[in-house]
Amino acid sequence: MPAFQTLKRYAAGMVIPACLMTAAVFLPVSANAQDSQSIIRDTEVEAFLKTNTRPVLDAAGLDPDRVHYLLIASDELNAFATTGLRIGINTGTIMEADNPNQLFGVIAHETGHLSGGHMMRTDEIERAARAPMAISLGLGIVAALAGAPDAGLGIAASSSTFGTLGALHYMQTEESAADVAGVKAMEKAGMSAKGLVDFFYKFRNVETFSNAERYQFFITHPLSRERIQATTRLAQSQPHYNTPDNPETVKEFDIVKAKLSGFLDDPLKTYQKYPETDTSYPARYARVIATYKRGQWDQAISQLDKLIAEQPENPYLWELKGQIYFETGRAALAVPAHLKSVELMPQAPLLQLNLGQALIAVGDKDSLNAAVAHLQQSIKYEEDDSFAWQQLAQAYDALNQPGLARLSTAEAQFYAGDYMAARTSAVWSQKYLDIKSPEYRRARDIVMTSSSEMGIDPVDRETQRRRKN
């Protein structure tokens, strides 16, 4: 059995160190991705999206480095734009796309919403975007994994978080404006807008005659015949309309789809999609993951080692190997695999986080100190990742550094939007921190900012009383 079947969380959604824990809630991990729509993180999938959509984002007048993707583990067809320069994409949208151009067309449309200022602004989306990334980011997928009750991967956001998305609608005028902006952005980026047109035509009739909930995109993005025709005419008038996808991009896209199938589909479905007769890299990759999900861990490692022998410089394969070892309670074996992935891709925050988690699980002093270093690197690249702060708090707690443990917990709670808990943890951290240290000043900043967010007096009366005494 894997080491982590449940996710220990604070009531507000935070993992807290033992020195702060008075009670914990154990939340079982769902075994069916169809029953829950969860935010997932994956370095490989995110890198594919960020790298290949940079030209489109830039053409749309957006800073590619400031745009963030939210991957939603759902087979529903949907995408949305929201505040904070976030683009949400359901995994179903990726899986249903016939080629990368269709996916990029949908993203280009969403950039039109961003640049046009007509984003979906909902408290649910904002809370989900701040939610802590749950346990075990090794392979990257953090979701309710279909057919894998023992995979031990936590849920970052529940289905209730996204249950209201179907009730949100863009106005027809906003949709038309986003279509025009998307087509122009694709053209300016030197890419064909044909994918957006094909996407509309491919699913318009399906949406009309089949389960509407399956195609939320057309509920939140109402279509009309006139709108489709106008978009088609505009796209066909562009010089790059018949420009094909880059072959390398197509290969990467096939790998992404195989990976998502491996994790989110039932293993038997994955085997049907990618039978043994298919000896391509994406197919073998998907089968390794499906084999792992079926609990055949050693067989999965054996298959994976063959892929690594062919591609020893592929960080995602080493990441997967570390994932399997970590999730099956073999942290000491996970560490060298995760370390190799970090060496190959040192600026990937999730890979640094994976390694930090594994080192914490090993638990000796040297490993804990190394975990702190790698978690700090992860936070350097993604300061607002509350789960990384949680893990750092755990490492500091194990090293008997209560001040830094409480401060890291405060950071985690602050970035998750739990300002009351963040304020309390920051106040407690000050009891252990040198008043002249930068850590103490940071704790004070959290107290002040959290208090301001809650509209209360930032001065802690109990702290004042202790200082006077």
UniProtKB/TrEMBL annotation:
Record-level Gene Ontology MF annotations: metal ion binding; metalloendopeptidase activity
CDD domains according to UniProt: M48C_Oma1-like
A GO biological-process term: proteolysis involved in protein catabolic process
Cofactors: Zn(2+)
Protein name: Putative Zn-dependent protease, contains TPR repeats
The organism's place on the tree of life at top rank: Bacteria
Signal peptide region: 1-33
PANTHER family assigned: METALLOENDOPEPTIDASE OMA1, METALLOENDOPEPTIDASE OMA1, MITOCHONDRIAL
Any one Gene Ontology cellular component term annotated for this protein: membrane
Record keywords, A-Z: Hydrolase, Metal-binding, Metalloprotease, Protease, Signal, Zinc
Residues in Peptidase M48 domain copies: 49-232
